[in-house]
Amino acid sequence: MSSPEASANSTTKPRRAAPVPRTGQGGGHLDRATFGQRFRQSFADPRFDQASAQIAQLEEIAWQNYQDGRKAPVTRAAGAGYADPDYEIAVEWLDTKAAIDTAKQTQQDQNTPNQVLIIIASHRNDDTCPGEVSKSWRLANIARQELEREGTVCDVIDLSRLTSEYGLNIHPCKGCVATAMPLCHFPCSCYPNHSLNQTGDWMNDIYIKLAAAHGLLIVTPTYWYQSPGALKNLMDRLVCIDGGNTDPSSTHGKKAIKAKQIELDGWDYPKHLPNRAYAVMVHGDVAGVEAQRRNLCDQLDWMGFIAAGFKGRLDRYIGYYESYAESHEALDQDQAVQDEAVMVAQALQATIRQLRQGIELQPSQQVELVRPK
User: What Gene3D superfamilies has UniProt attached to this entry (predicted)?
Assistant: First the structure.
């Protein structure tokens, strides 16, 4: 009979070497003239002409930073608890990670009130080109009033601010997870990238708010059968919550070969914000609401969020095939959908209450996934 050690050794799989990352697609660095043209686009207003010398000086600094790839110009050593304590990590990332950890602890405190993050996904508001509020905003406010009536604290992310405020962005996901899951850091470390002027990213704030929340409510219109672009960017950027790496020092930043090896050596795809309740309200005028609702719910289910039941998953048409000009009037007359916004809020509230009481709403969550990826 073989020894336990021999048996273990005989069944141990040989270590797979990480494949070399495929390269050649990127467009390379901009030339100086093209960089300057793009930099000066922000100063097209003739009022800036009086500061042309200073702008030229800033352009030269920005060019040098671009050349040197100064993505994260302010860093500090990762410190204890990281794979490489001496590795320099962006201070912005470390501060966000600390805030998320604090928010997660507060979220677990039974003495705190229920907290819901409401995401209003329409791009429309009356401060910019459309000149009018959105129906999503109105429906979200109906739901919010019901939640607050029950004592819930509501935090609102109104994505229309991306179209009407200066310097606020949700940058697109760069797809690190497709190279290797450990290359996708939580919170996302792709932004800000100061050398590329990819700044003003809203996601760090959203990660913190989501970590603090007991529930999530998404209210969204349907744009051409799909989610609005801002919501799609936001949902893509939540990929790091589902399997992401909380230690950028382990991959020395964005070293793809290191991340590939870590994944091949064994990665458990951790769910960082599980067991938060969610509800979704999708509306449209002609087509696509059901498909969008399914897409959103499927992603949230996969991330380990808990659905607020059938009454918390709503897709409705408002002013079906009627004029856009009278869409708000159609909502005024649709008392049923307004009442359903209250119903969605009540379903979310009830689910949060049960989760915080320790009631197991989805026993299948305890079943280990055969294929977590």
Answer: 3.40.50.360
Task: Give the 3-state secondary structure of residue 178.
Answer: helix
Measure Cα distances from 239 to 64, 71, 110, 302, 373 in Å.
33, 22, 28, 10, 12
Task: Tell me the one-letter amino acid at 62.
Answer: A
Structure token pair of residue 267? 């990665």
What residues in the chain have per-residue pLDDT under 50?
A: 1-10
Measured over the CA atoms of residue 305, residue 182, residue 295 and residue 120, the dihedral's sign is: positive
Distance of CA 192 to the CA centre of its chain: 14
Q: What does the H/E/C string look like for 147-177?
A: HHHCCCEEEEEECCHHHHCCCCECCCCCCHH
Q: What are the φ/ψ torsions at residue 120 (nearest 5 degrees)?
A: -100, 115
Q: Which domains does the chain have, with CATH numbers?
A: 57-359 (3.40.50.360)
What is the model's pLDDT at position 7? 34
Alpha-carbon gap, residue 284 to 321, rounded angstroms: 10
Q: Helices 203-212 & 91-107, crossing angle to 10 degrees?
A: 20
Q: Is 24 exposed, middle or buried (0-12, 13-18, 19+ CB in 10 A)?
A: exposed
**CB of 130 closer than 8 Å to CB of 124:** yes
DSSP state letter for 364 = G
State how far the Cα of 342 lies from the Cα of 168, in Å rounded to an integer. Answer: 31
